[in-house]
User: Fold GL26064 from Drosophila persimilis.
Amino acid sequence: MQIYWILVLLFLQVEADVTLSTENSFERSAVRTQCIGKLQLNELIGWVFRFQHCEVTRDEDDERCGAICYPVVKPLLRYAALCQGKDASINDLKDEIRKKDVYIAQLESKLEIAKSMETQASKQMEDLKVQLKVNEMLKQMEHLKQQTDAKIKSSYQQLKDKETELHLKAIKILKIEKDFKDREAEIFDKKDQISKMEMQTQSREVQIQSKDKSIRELEDQANSLKQKLKGISEASSCLPFTNSTKIHTISLPGIDPFVVPCNSSVSGSGWTVIQRRVNGLVDFNRNWIDYKLGFGDLRENFFLGLEKIHQMTLLQPHELYIQLQHVNGSTSYARYDDFKIGSEEEDYKLKSLGKYSGTAGDSLNYHLNMKFSTLDRDNDTSEKNNCAKHHEGGWWFSYCAQSFLNGKYYEDGKSGTSGDYGIIWGSWQKYNYEISLTFSQIMIRPKTLKNLYFLMNK
Ligand SMILES: [Ca+2]
Assistant:
């Protein structure tokens, strides 16, 4: 039996040689060797195991086998050859499968690597996304930081400015405080000074009060003295109005103040004019009341008034000055050093003349102690006549007159031959009563106390 299978194998070897006869010798040899080796190995092993107990001899078998088996084995051989080819294909396929497996394993390995790489990439992507988010956040934070920095910078600058402003204000406040303290110190000093001054003032006030008291006492004494001297000095005549030839107001005890013309241009200062004739504009043929109170224009023709003259001459002794002028321009005067007339109760009697001096002659002494007469009051010594009425003017008529300065005014200086008086001063015109003077002025001046006035005003 074993020999049979060896023949089969040799047959297969022949078939293989025939099949590959068209191939090149080198390659056929290699393939045959390889195929025989494989068949021998595979089939011999199977064959040995399956037929190891075969007891037929080799010669017998060979004969039987040759005759019986060949027709049977021949399709088997062909099938075996076909199977051998299939096995080779299968082996090839297995090899291919192994290669594919290897390739698949490689691919799987690569896939694993790829998956790993994908995982890494995904992780990296996530990391990148995170990084991007972080970068975006960082960028936003940077922007916020810049904005915050800008705000902080602005706020810092504002704070800086505020600090500077506060610093300046603090300096101002310090200066104001210093000024305030200085002022306080000044005020304190001033208060101290004021306190001292108040004390001094109080002391001085005491002194002043004492002096005021003394002054009041002196003033009272002076006022008393002035009151005593008032009527006899400055206000009672023109004497205080030194060198004046104007109209002034004087006052006398018992009557209202009145105005008088003063004259300092004829015979020294301080004369009070009591009568004047310069033209015929004022009628001197007046009644008692007129002569008592006075009349006319103080600037020209006037009579001051018997009551005023009485009060003036009553208060103190007066001197008398009579100024005369002829129509031809010649002048003269008569002066008496103690002129005084009585009260109305005494009919304003010419009570005193004193000592005469002058150039006109003494034509008034004839009228001494005569009462004053007016057209309505006959106080003359003529029993049959009213001299004042007859000669049209008031005067101290006796048996009429040697002087009469209140007579009718004649512009040509002549009263005519009728015997009626004009303005006459007999002793100066040689008792020619046809002559009427064209100017007369009677003035009086205190005499005995005039020096006292000057002493009081020094
Ligand atoms: Ca008479």
